[in-house]
Amino acid sequence: MATAVFGRKKHMTQAFQDDGTLVGVTIIEVEPNLIIATRSAGEEGYDAVQVGFGRAKSTRVNKAHAGAFAKVDAPPRRHLKELRGMTGEVGEAIGADVFEVGDKVHVSATSKGRGFQGTVKRHGFGRGPVSHGSHNIRQPGSVGASADPARIFKGQKMPGQMGNKAVTVRNLEVVAVDAENNELWVRGGVPGGKNAVVKIWKAGE
Prior knowledge:
Blueprint: E1 4-16, E2 22-29, E3 33-39, E4 48-53, H1 63-70, E5 79-84, E6 93-94, E7 104-110, E8 113-117, H2 119-123, E9 160-163, E10 166-178, E11 183-187, E12 197-202
Antiparallel strand pairs: 1-2, 1-12, 2-11, 3-4, 3-6, 4-5, 7-10, 7-12, 8-9, 10-11
């Protein structure tokens, strides 16, 4: 079965490896994910666990959300999500200690939103001339022929919304596991801004 957990991106820093190499790492806070419900292939058609995590005031969640945690006699958590492929018992907590140093993991999150951007920033287009009264400095240029096919092809790189999409970074190495402080250190950067909710699962699962 899959090994996965939800966490919160804290910040980036540096860490020394055993051979003395200095590498950039991202620190992810993995507050224990409390299992409040399970799904089984026999009943729902797939295996999964429903987990809650993140501190939240009881006055900031709706009745349905609070009721899900009341069934297991636990205070409500801020987030309520599903981990497919996982199995466990209701009331069990999943923490950073499900991973070990040296594990390869995939990390998924929503990337930072950049708003509506042009082709130069969004796709790395080159700019036009800037002298002699040019009006084509950062414009995209031609996007299609006029007579045939008389339309713009699907997938044409155009200005538009940049970022704010689900992004997965694969095969990051676990550099350190601090179960006492609920922290997981992974080599390299992960998507999202500070405090972004991230999903971490073992590679190959």
